[in-house]
């Protein structure tokens, strides 16, 4: 079974990663209550850390990952062998400087890299939860991270930082635990999912559920719904890139044979690229986790949790905020960042807003961006 | 089998439609050569007409339909029972005025409403072509329409008009048969498919091909790949609507029960709407036709057919052009319309360009738009 192989690899890789951090998982006992009304008897939280926790425990930074991200922030991914997804941002002397800061990144609740999710064993049945796993929210993810910090003895974060869904968690952290967050960095994100965001996710979910191998989610131990998950990833991947970026990278360039085949092979480079993105994703991600996490994103509406007024989420906060958007991001456009900043201003919070130019759309936050590096280093350096 | 039922309905409906026009199909004998190098032994072209052909045969207007459109331009669709897709535009006293003009709309080659396509019987085998149907181009569709006009004895069109893929056919008409086209109206269209356009289509094709019921295209007489086709339609449908339009129409509104279910039902109205769009589409469209027509669209690059210079497609033309774009169309943005107009200007062609405001994105050309009506009536009235 894929996940068992992954776990074995994970353990093997943990040793080579020892220099960078921990490859740790903790089981947090006691009923974990959920926004949906249910509870989990216990939860596992898998996490990585980088740097050294100061004696006063005051230098901890929590980085929250995106939909398909994981805790391998700045260390080699055990399944893909690739560098951490934000290795350019986090490390000694880097903008999130592990010479100075203790950086934690936890796999979100509902995911598939060690934290509790639909692929986890339900202690009540001894079998994978599959679709009996409760539907979770972004705030549930945040509460699980808070429980992890309790376990680690960290009362207060120097900063919480996240891009995309990570930015939503950062916002939810600041709203849910204002006394535990000194600074909050929200990148390429939004305070709620739009109708278009929901629509794209629904396409992905329907693609997964239409795959006969999905079998109502009960595919563990059998063949996973690879084809459906690949289609879901392909559709989502388009939203991560700008039209101009796709044109610059691929345009209408043909594959190596350099002529149209008048068939249905991947004639255009962009087709081949998308197919690869879809298939590669299925090697590292669980389809049911994709269903649960997209659902959590679609449910996210921070204003709704606060009487319909976003500013109410931040009333009286002492947290400093930094909100960053990219001009070509059409998944979470900069207008969404401005909505957040207006709410922060209305709440009297200290907030700065930076709109960066990039040709790369939503994915820009993961790519080389000296301006983002400067913003991050400057904001975290100013008292974080 | 679905298509047989459809054909029966079509014949029944033809009688009720008699007042409006013909429900006709013609078999055009003789080898039909294709851009891909192959040929079809004969082709069928199904078409509808509205109005009366003048004695001098000089009042014919060809309207070209979009990807999933058909010849039921202004008459009831035989499968869905819905009004024609452009009934608001075409009819007595309407902008395309059938009191004055003889309007023809033909089902495109490769489609599934009576013209030859993958669901048609291959005379060589006596079985449906399925994936042995040759890959076709937009220009092949245009050549089939030209053959129909030859059959009808119409040497020259007063105008060719089309939106979206119909606009591409209109451009291809003007470039391929300049002497047969007095005026050309291109709405919400482009002179070539962008990398993002191709990417969305590839998602749809992969969704269809991932459906086990697709069976390499050999599903006629059995269960068609409904689930895959529905996902393809859902993904495409998002691109037909603007983000602002989706927000205005649905926002984050929940279904009637008015509370989140914390499950995977269609909680949000936009989910329910998309699912309906996907499923309804499968009742009237053949999955293989979707593969072939999206392929033709992706291959479309009018400049490439003319030495890489779009203006060369129109050198020396006497055709008058009217190019219309909608400001919120992100499938074929108005920048694509401008590219066409610049090429027309460079070729010395008579061209007007109108950018219309609409909240509805690409779909605006199908919806109520008094400005579009005025532009159309004015342009066709001025000597068409």
From TrEMBL, chains A, B:
Catalytic activity: L-homoserine + acetyl-CoA = O-acetyl-L-homoserine + CoA
Pathway: Amino-acid biosynthesis; L-methionine biosynthesis via de novo pathway; O-acetyl-L-homoserine from L-homoserine: step 1/1
Keyword annotations of the record: Acyltransferase, Amino-acid biosynthesis, Cytoplasm, Methionine biosynthesis, Transferase
One cellular-component annotation, GO: cytoplasm
The protein's enzyme class: transferase
This enzyme's EC code(s): 2.3.1.31
Protein's UniProt keywords contain DNA-binding: no
Cellular localisation: Cytoplasm
TM ranges: none
Active site: 164, 329, 362
Binding residues annotated for substrate, in chain numbering: 233, 363
Boundaries of every AB hydrolase-1 domain copy: 59-367
An example Gene Ontology biological process: homoserine metabolic process
Major localisation: cytoplasm
Molecular function, one GO term: homoserine O-acetyltransferase activity
Subunit structure: Homodimer.
NCBIfam families, A to Z: homoserO_Ac_trn, PRK00175.1
Family assignment from sequence similarity: Belongs to the AB hydrolase superfamily. MetX family.
Function: Transfers an acetyl group from acetyl-CoA to L-homoserine, forming acetyl-L-homoserine.
Record's protein name: Homoserine O-acetyltransferase
Gene name linked to the record: metXA
